[in-house]
C-alpha cells in the first residue's frame, strides 16, 4: 500500500488542487480542524476514499471519507 501525502489545513479550502481530495473523519462536523474532534485533510486521490454524502463543506462540489470495509 502506497503512503498518501497528507496536509491538514486550518480551514476548509476554497479549492482542492487537481489530483487531491478533501476528506474528514467521522465526528461532529465544524469549519476548523480540531473543533469538536473534527479532523479534515487534503490528500492524494486514492481508491480508499469515496464521496461522502453528508452536508459538510457545501461550498465545494464534493468531499470524501475513508471507504469502510
What does this structure look like?
The structure is a single chain. The mean pLDDT is 86. The chain has a three-stranded antiparallel sheet with strand order 1-3-2, with no helix packed on it. Strands 4-5 form a two-stranded antiparallel ribbon. The protein has strands at residues 6-7, 20-24, 40-44, 49-51, 64-66. The two termini are 16 Å apart. The chain has one domain. With 69 residues, the protein is mostly beta strands. The chain has no helices and five strands.
List the strand order in the largest sheet.
Answer: 1-3-2
Largest sheet: 3 strands, antiparallel
Q: Residue share in helices?
A: under 10%
The average pLDDT value, as a whole number, equals 86
- Count every helix, treating DSSP H or I runs of 4 or more residues as helices: 0
- SSE-based structural type: mainly beta
Element pattern in H and E: EEEEE
Strand content: 25-35%
Low-confidence stretches: none
The total strand number stands at: 5
Backbone CA Rg: 11 Å
**Shape summary:** globular
